[in-house]
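Memo subject: From amino acid sequence to discrete backbone structure tokens
Action wanted: Derive the backbone structure tokens from the amino acid sequence.
How to read it: Take the token row as a discrete description of the fold.
Attached in line: The record itself begins immediately under this heading.
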Amino acid sequence: MKIQALAYAVLSLCGLAAVHAAEPAAKPATAAPRAESADEARMRAAENLTEQQIKSTTNREALSRLAQFYNGRDLQRFIWSMQRLVELYPNSGALRLQLAAVYAGQGDKSNTYDTLLKMQNLGFAYSIGNDPRFEKVHGTKVWEYAVANLDANAKPFGEGKVAVQLPAGDTLLEALAWDSKRKQLLVGSARDGAIHRVEKDGKLADFIKPDPASGLYSVLDLKADAANDVLWVASYGAPVYKSYTAEMVDHSYLLKYSLSSGKLLGKYSIEDKTGHLFGFVAVAGDGRVYVADPARREIFKLDGDKLVQVTSNSMLTGISGLAVSSDGRNLYFADPALGLFGMDLSTARPFSVGHSPDSLVVGGVSSLFWYDGSLILVQDNMVPQRVMRLKLDKDGRNVVTAMPLDAAKPEFTMLGNGAVAGDDFYFVANSQRELYDSHGVLSDAKLLQPIKVYKSNLRFAWDQPGISAGLKPIPAAGDAKVRFENPEPAPKQDDNK
């Protein structure tokens, strides 16, 4: 049986095992041997999977379930499963830390140190000095080095600062846009659907009033095209929307407004029975517009008055950002777990954005932007949270160098959406979205804080080399597998130091 099929069958095994464990011991019986049930056969098969079978699967969800099944039941197969999950989710610091803790629990200093040193080189910041899971690997210089550098990665970095504070309130101001003609920020509410202009003192001036009849529901993204006097809005009937009704379920619109007057100029949607969620908008230099559906992992372009699918990939875990190069050649999108991808719009061919997985984490992205041959990443699900600038090669397909613009700042409680404004980048530093549950209910109004809009200089350390994040192939060994160099070798591991 293939590992993928078997693993899906294992989804029920954890619950099955728990039921069996809770049953009282049966009294001896002389009945004829009972035939093995299908569930028992699958459990037995899972218990006999080989290392090669486990490490050859590409089914991430099934492998995660297998790891849960093995945890506390079969240490060796749990380790194999975790090792493979780290390979399939190279951007996950949490998985790497869990694997390091498993190694440490066995007193395996070599694998523990190797995992931790790779994490610190990637920029992860975890405080493990007093973590009891690592007690068995204390007492060496390599341990002290790893602890010190993981702590160092948590220190604030960058010259950015809070540019303006928006009023606290039950508004969930998430989407930002920059009106380059009027030199003014715009902000949209996911809570009431209003769009405001931001005054210099942080006060909000009404610009586009909430209007459910026009399809203006929760504002998830804004993009201003000042050259064409257009403001593009991604609107969705989300449960967090105050005027939410059953008729809005799975309804989403790409709305076109006049940037100068706020007049509605166009309303675009996809009329089908499946429903859609438009979460991100990107505008090319020539005015072409793209919109992404994170839930269905689809991207559309506006062609006349129709939204036409550009790409769809069910293998993605989602889409968490959308950007297009200034020349309109490449479309970029982020997967929150798997990293950065692109599409050559002239050939409709997709590609992965090349980078060294030994020196750069490209997951945990919540929004994505284009700036002067670079991609700007807001990584709210990275530890520490940060904003990164990735310089690309001339073809726009590979990262050459990477530079954090701002990281681990004390104001960074939950990074939100942003907007490029010339050579500056504005973004929400303390999103309030975690205060609302999946039904859109606010947990406690007293916890609502003024929204801090941060500003980073996009040309910060522009001429400095930054992190060498390009692919560095070394000669293929006998197995002909591609390997990558670590740009800064860690100190030699000596368990006796």
The chain has two domains: 3-23+36-152, 157-465. The longest strand covers residues 399-407. The chain is about 20% helix and 30% strand.
